[in-house]
Amino acid sequence: MPELPEVTTTVNGLNKVLKNLTIKDVWSDYFLRTKNKRKDTIKNKKYFEKFRKEISGEKFKNAERRGKNILIHLTDGKTILVHMKMTGHLLYGKYSWNGKKWQSYEPLLKDSFNQFIHLIFTLSNGEHLAFSDMRKFAKVVLFETKYREKLIDLAGLGPEPLQNLSLETFTKQLHKKPDGKIKTVLMDQSIIAGIGNIYSDEILWEAGIHPERKPKTLKKDEIMKMWKATKKILNNSIKMGGDSMSDYRNIYGEKGNYQNAHKVYRRTNEKCLKKSCDGIIIRKIIGGRSGHFCNTHQK
Fold first, then answer.
1. In what order do the strands lie in the sheet with 88-93?
2. Catalytic site residue 3?
3. Which end of the chain is more exposed for a tag (fewer CB within 10 A), N or C?
Protein backbone atom coordinates (compact mmCIF):
# COMPACT_ATOMS: atom_id res chain seq x y z
CA MET A 1 0.00 0.00 0.00
CA PRO A 2 1.37 3.45 -0.85
CA GLU A 3 2.55 5.16 2.33
CA LEU A 4 3.53 8.72 3.17
CA PRO A 5 6.47 9.04 0.71
CA GLU A 6 4.49 7.59 -2.21
CA VAL A 7 1.45 9.77 -1.49
CA THR A 8 3.71 12.82 -1.12
CA THR A 9 5.39 12.02 -4.44
CA THR A 10 1.99 11.78 -6.11
CA VAL A 11 0.77 15.04 -4.58
CA ASN A 12 3.94 16.87 -5.64
CA GLY A 13 3.37 15.62 -9.18
CA LEU A 14 -0.27 16.68 -9.22
CA ASN A 15 0.65 20.18 -8.08
CA LYS A 16 3.00 20.49 -11.05
CA VAL A 17 0.52 19.52 -13.75
CA LEU A 18 -3.06 20.19 -12.65
CA LYS A 19 -3.20 23.76 -11.37
CA ASN A 20 -5.94 25.81 -13.08
CA LEU A 21 -6.90 22.98 -15.45
CA THR A 22 -10.63 22.40 -15.86
CA ILE A 23 -12.30 19.00 -15.53
CA LYS A 24 -14.16 18.50 -18.81
CA ASP A 25 -15.63 15.07 -18.02
CA VAL A 26 -15.24 12.05 -15.74
CA TRP A 27 -15.54 8.33 -16.53
CA SER A 28 -15.50 5.31 -14.23
CA ASP A 29 -16.41 1.64 -14.32
CA TYR A 30 -15.94 1.00 -10.58
CA PHE A 31 -19.68 0.57 -10.07
CA LEU A 32 -19.71 -2.12 -12.78
CA ARG A 33 -16.74 -4.09 -11.50
CA THR A 34 -16.86 -3.81 -7.71
CA LYS A 35 -18.81 -5.99 -5.31
CA ASN A 36 -20.09 -4.77 -1.93
CA LYS A 37 -20.61 -1.26 -3.27
CA ARG A 38 -20.62 1.42 -0.56
CA LYS A 39 -23.15 4.20 -1.01
CA ASP A 40 -20.69 6.98 -0.14
CA THR A 41 -18.02 6.40 -2.82
CA ILE A 42 -17.86 6.41 -6.64
CA LYS A 43 -18.22 2.61 -6.52
CA ASN A 44 -21.94 3.32 -6.18
CA LYS A 45 -23.51 4.35 -9.49
CA LYS A 46 -25.80 7.05 -8.05
CA TYR A 47 -22.91 8.52 -6.08
CA PHE A 48 -20.70 8.54 -9.17
CA GLU A 49 -23.36 10.28 -11.26
CA LYS A 50 -23.61 13.02 -8.62
CA PHE A 51 -19.80 13.14 -8.35
CA ARG A 52 -19.47 13.58 -12.11
CA LYS A 53 -22.11 16.29 -12.25
CA GLU A 54 -20.65 18.30 -9.37
CA ILE A 55 -17.02 18.36 -10.54
CA SER A 56 -17.43 18.63 -14.31
CA GLY A 57 -16.52 22.16 -15.33
CA GLU A 58 -14.61 22.87 -12.12
CA LYS A 59 -10.93 23.82 -11.92
CA PHE A 60 -8.15 22.21 -9.94
CA LYS A 61 -6.74 24.47 -7.24
CA ASN A 62 -4.05 22.40 -5.55
CA ALA A 63 -3.42 19.03 -3.90
CA GLU A 64 -2.16 18.06 -0.47
CA ARG A 65 -1.56 14.94 1.57
CA ARG A 66 -3.14 13.98 4.91
CA GLY A 67 -1.93 10.63 6.20
CA LYS A 68 -2.20 8.25 3.27
CA ASN A 69 -4.96 10.33 1.65
CA ILE A 70 -4.62 12.57 -1.41
CA LEU A 71 -6.77 15.69 -1.16
CA ILE A 72 -7.41 17.42 -4.50
CA HIS A 73 -8.94 20.83 -3.89
CA LEU A 74 -11.22 22.41 -6.48
CA THR A 75 -11.99 26.10 -6.90
CA ASP A 76 -15.66 25.68 -5.94
CA GLY A 77 -14.91 24.83 -2.31
CA LYS A 78 -15.03 21.07 -2.82
CA THR A 79 -12.32 18.48 -2.37
CA ILE A 80 -11.79 15.08 -3.95
CA LEU A 81 -10.30 12.56 -1.52
CA VAL A 82 -8.38 9.64 -3.02
CA HIS A 83 -7.10 6.79 -0.88
CA MET A 84 -5.01 4.58 -3.15
CA LYS A 85 -5.30 1.52 -0.85
CA MET A 86 -3.33 -1.57 -1.94
CA THR A 87 -2.71 -1.10 -5.67
CA GLY A 88 -3.93 2.31 -6.76
CA HIS A 89 -1.93 5.12 -8.34
CA LEU A 90 -2.76 8.25 -10.35
CA LEU A 91 -1.31 8.73 -13.83
CA TYR A 92 -1.09 11.84 -16.01
CA GLY A 93 -0.93 11.67 -19.79
CA LYS A 94 -2.88 11.21 -22.98
CA TYR A 95 -5.40 8.35 -23.12
CA SER A 96 -7.93 7.16 -25.69
CA TRP A 97 -10.93 4.82 -25.56
CA ASN A 98 -10.61 1.81 -27.88
CA GLY A 99 -14.20 0.66 -27.45
CA LYS A 100 -13.37 -1.67 -24.56
CA LYS A 101 -10.92 0.15 -22.34
CA TRP A 102 -8.78 3.26 -21.92
CA GLN A 103 -5.25 2.97 -23.20
CA SER A 104 -2.17 5.12 -23.66
CA TYR A 105 0.60 4.86 -26.21
CA GLU A 106 3.08 6.70 -24.01
CA PRO A 107 5.85 4.17 -23.18
CA LEU A 108 5.83 4.50 -19.38
CA LEU A 109 2.04 4.50 -19.15
CA LYS A 110 2.03 1.17 -21.01
CA ASP A 111 3.74 -0.49 -18.03
CA SER A 112 1.68 -3.57 -17.07
CA PHE A 113 1.01 -2.12 -13.61
CA ASN A 114 -0.54 0.97 -15.23
CA GLN A 115 -3.17 -0.85 -17.27
CA PHE A 116 -5.95 -1.23 -14.70
CA ILE A 117 -7.78 2.02 -15.42
CA HIS A 118 -11.05 2.45 -13.50
CA LEU A 119 -11.32 6.25 -13.33
CA ILE A 120 -10.50 8.92 -15.93
CA PHE A 121 -10.65 12.71 -15.66
CA THR A 122 -10.61 14.42 -19.07
CA LEU A 123 -8.75 17.73 -18.72
CA SER A 124 -9.02 21.06 -20.53
CA ASN A 125 -5.49 20.78 -21.97
CA GLY A 126 -6.31 17.56 -23.82
CA GLU A 127 -4.52 15.37 -21.26
CA HIS A 128 -6.06 12.92 -18.80
CA LEU A 129 -5.71 12.07 -15.13
CA ALA A 130 -6.18 8.31 -14.88
CA PHE A 131 -6.42 6.03 -11.88
CA SER A 132 -4.99 2.52 -12.19
CA ASP A 133 -6.18 0.15 -9.47
CA MET A 134 -5.54 -3.54 -10.08
CA ARG A 135 -7.41 -4.85 -7.03
CA LYS A 136 -10.13 -2.15 -7.11
CA PHE A 137 -9.80 -1.41 -3.35
CA ALA A 138 -9.29 2.36 -3.69
CA LYS A 139 -11.65 4.95 -2.28
CA VAL A 140 -12.68 8.18 -4.05
CA VAL A 141 -15.14 10.60 -2.47
CA LEU A 142 -16.15 14.25 -2.81
CA PHE A 143 -16.76 16.55 0.15
CA GLU A 144 -17.08 20.24 1.01
CA THR A 145 -13.61 21.43 1.94
CA LYS A 146 -14.81 23.43 4.95
CA TYR A 147 -16.07 20.24 6.58
CA ARG A 148 -12.80 18.29 6.22
CA GLU A 149 -12.26 17.93 9.96
CA LYS A 150 -15.60 16.13 10.25
CA LEU A 151 -14.94 13.66 7.44
CA ILE A 152 -14.60 10.16 8.86
CA ASP A 153 -11.52 9.45 6.70
CA LEU A 154 -9.63 12.40 8.21
CA ALA A 155 -11.13 13.05 11.64
CA GLY A 156 -9.29 10.34 13.55
CA LEU A 157 -5.82 10.77 12.08
CA GLY A 158 -2.84 11.39 14.32
CA PRO A 159 -0.19 14.07 13.76
CA GLU A 160 1.98 14.18 10.66
CA PRO A 161 5.51 12.86 11.23
CA LEU A 162 7.25 15.44 9.02
CA GLN A 163 5.31 18.58 9.89
CA ASN A 164 6.90 20.02 13.03
CA LEU A 165 6.32 16.84 15.02
CA SER A 166 8.23 17.41 18.25
CA LEU A 167 9.92 14.66 20.23
CA GLU A 168 7.53 15.43 23.07
CA THR A 169 4.44 14.89 20.88
CA PHE A 170 5.96 11.78 19.28
CA THR A 171 6.53 10.31 22.76
CA LYS A 172 3.04 11.23 23.91
CA GLN A 173 1.46 9.60 20.87
CA LEU A 174 3.37 6.32 21.27
CA HIS A 175 2.35 6.13 24.92
CA LYS A 176 -1.32 6.16 23.96
CA LYS A 177 -0.83 2.45 23.24
CA PRO A 178 1.62 1.55 26.06
CA ASP A 179 1.09 -2.21 25.80
CA GLY A 180 0.96 -2.51 22.02
CA LYS A 181 3.76 -3.85 19.86
CA ILE A 182 5.75 -0.89 18.65
CA LYS A 183 5.58 -1.86 14.96
CA THR A 184 1.79 -2.04 15.17
CA VAL A 185 1.63 1.22 17.12
CA LEU A 186 3.74 3.03 14.50
CA MET A 187 1.36 1.82 11.80
CA ASP A 188 -1.74 2.95 13.73
CA GLN A 189 -3.01 5.97 11.77
CA SER A 190 -4.59 7.46 14.89
CA ILE A 191 -1.14 7.57 16.53
CA ILE A 192 1.05 8.83 13.66
CA ALA A 193 -0.40 9.43 10.19
CA GLY A 194 1.16 7.99 7.06
CA ILE A 195 3.44 5.17 8.23
CA GLY A 196 2.76 1.61 7.03
CA ASN A 197 4.47 -1.74 6.74
CA ILE A 198 7.55 -0.78 4.76
CA TYR A 199 8.59 2.28 6.72
CA SER A 200 7.79 0.89 10.18
CA ASP A 201 10.28 -1.91 9.45
CA GLU A 202 12.91 0.50 8.14
CA ILE A 203 12.47 2.98 11.02
CA LEU A 204 12.77 0.30 13.71
CA TRP A 205 15.84 -1.22 12.02
CA GLU A 206 17.50 2.20 11.86
CA ALA A 207 16.68 2.91 15.52
CA GLY A 208 17.71 -0.57 16.71
CA ILE A 209 14.32 -1.29 18.27
CA HIS A 210 12.74 -4.76 18.20
CA PRO A 211 9.28 -4.55 16.55
CA GLU A 212 7.60 -6.43 19.42
CA ARG A 213 8.77 -4.04 22.15
CA LYS A 214 6.02 -2.27 24.08
CA PRO A 215 6.10 1.54 24.08
CA LYS A 216 6.03 1.60 27.88
CA THR A 217 9.39 -0.22 27.94
CA LEU A 218 11.17 2.26 25.67
CA LYS A 219 13.73 4.57 27.23
CA LYS A 220 13.94 8.26 26.32
CA ASP A 221 17.03 7.76 24.17
CA GLU A 222 15.36 4.89 22.29
CA ILE A 223 12.31 7.02 21.50
CA MET A 224 14.62 9.80 20.35
CA LYS A 225 16.36 7.37 17.98
CA MET A 226 12.95 6.36 16.58
CA TRP A 227 11.91 10.00 16.20
CA LYS A 228 15.08 10.85 14.29
CA ALA A 229 14.88 7.66 12.22
CA THR A 230 11.28 8.43 11.26
CA LYS A 231 12.21 11.80 9.79
CA LYS A 232 15.36 10.45 8.12
CA ILE A 233 13.73 7.41 6.50
CA LEU A 234 10.61 9.20 5.25
CA ASN A 235 12.54 12.19 3.87
CA ASN A 236 15.03 9.92 2.12
CA SER A 237 12.24 7.98 0.45
CA ILE A 238 10.52 11.17 -0.73
CA LYS A 239 13.83 12.29 -2.28
CA MET A 240 14.02 8.91 -4.06
CA GLY A 241 10.46 9.11 -5.42
CA GLY A 242 8.93 6.57 -3.06
CA ASP A 243 9.02 2.79 -3.05
CA SER A 244 8.06 0.69 -6.11
CA MET A 245 8.91 -2.79 -4.86
CA SER A 246 5.25 -3.55 -5.56
CA ASP A 247 3.17 -1.68 -8.13
CA TYR A 248 3.44 1.98 -7.10
CA ARG A 249 4.22 4.43 -9.91
CA ASN A 250 4.33 8.24 -9.92
CA ILE A 251 1.96 10.31 -12.08
CA TYR A 252 4.19 9.84 -15.14
CA GLY A 253 4.21 6.06 -14.76
CA GLU A 254 7.75 6.00 -13.39
CA LYS A 255 9.01 3.77 -10.59
CA GLY A 256 10.38 5.21 -7.37
CA ASN A 257 13.81 4.10 -6.16
CA TYR A 258 13.50 3.54 -2.42
CA GLN A 259 13.17 -0.23 -2.88
CA ASN A 260 16.86 -0.14 -3.82
CA ALA A 261 17.71 1.34 -0.40
CA HIS A 262 15.94 -1.17 1.84
CA LYS A 263 17.95 -2.17 4.87
CA VAL A 264 15.45 -4.71 6.18
CA TYR A 265 12.07 -4.81 4.41
CA ARG A 266 11.73 -8.04 2.39
CA ARG A 267 15.35 -9.03 3.04
CA THR A 268 14.43 -12.26 4.85
CA ASN A 269 17.41 -14.55 5.57
CA GLU A 270 19.90 -11.98 4.27
CA LYS A 271 22.77 -10.63 6.34
CA CYS A 272 22.04 -7.49 8.36
CA LEU A 273 23.53 -4.42 6.72
CA LYS A 274 24.30 -2.60 9.96
CA LYS A 275 28.01 -2.09 10.45
CA SER A 276 29.60 -4.62 12.84
CA CYS A 277 26.34 -6.62 13.11
CA ASP A 278 26.41 -10.34 12.31
CA GLY A 279 22.65 -10.75 12.44
CA ILE A 280 20.34 -12.27 9.82
CA ILE A 281 17.04 -10.64 8.83
CA ILE A 282 13.99 -12.47 10.20
CA ARG A 283 10.41 -12.30 8.95
CA LYS A 284 7.59 -12.71 11.46
CA ILE A 285 3.87 -11.96 11.47
CA ILE A 286 3.28 -9.10 13.92
CA GLY A 287 -0.21 -7.78 14.41
CA GLY A 288 -1.36 -9.52 11.24
CA ARG A 289 1.38 -7.94 9.09
CA SER A 290 4.79 -9.16 7.97
CA GLY A 291 7.54 -7.70 10.11
CA HIS A 292 11.20 -7.81 9.04
CA PHE A 293 13.93 -7.23 11.59
CA CYS A 294 17.40 -8.15 12.83
CA ASN A 295 17.20 -10.18 16.01
CA THR A 296 20.78 -9.23 16.88
CA HIS A 297 21.00 -5.43 17.00
CA GLN A 298 17.27 -4.66 17.34
CA LYS A 299 16.70 -4.99 21.07
1. 23-28, 117-123, 128-133, 88-93
2. yes
3. C
Residue-wise pLDDT tens digits, 54-82: 999 999 999 999 999 999 999 999 999 99
Give the rounded distance of the alpha carbon of 26 from its chain centre: 23
| Contacting residues for 232 by C-beta, under 8 A, at least 6 apart | 206
Q: In terms of pTM, does the model score above 0.85?
A: yes
CATH code that applies to domain 4-155: 3.20.190.10
DSSP string, 15-34: HHH-TT-BEEEEEE-HHHH-
Active-site residue identified among 43, 65, 66, 68 = 68
Q: Is beta strand 78-83 parallel, antiparallel or unpaired with respect to 102-103? A: unpaired
Instruction: Specify whether the CB–CB gap between 191 and 185 falls below 8 A.
Output: yes
| Catalytic residue from among 148, 263, 284, 289 | 289
299 labelled catalytic: no
Catalytic, 68? Answer yes
- How is the chain split into domains, by residue range? 4-155, 167-294
What pLDDT band is residue 114 in, cutting at 50, 70 and 90?
very high
Please give the full DSSP string across 240-261, using - where no structure is assigned. Answer: TT---SSS---TTS---SGGGG
Q: Which CATH number among 2.40.260.10, 3.40.50.620, 1.10.8.50, 3.40.50.12160 corresponds to the domain 167-294?
A: 1.10.8.50
Note if 202 is an active site residue.
no
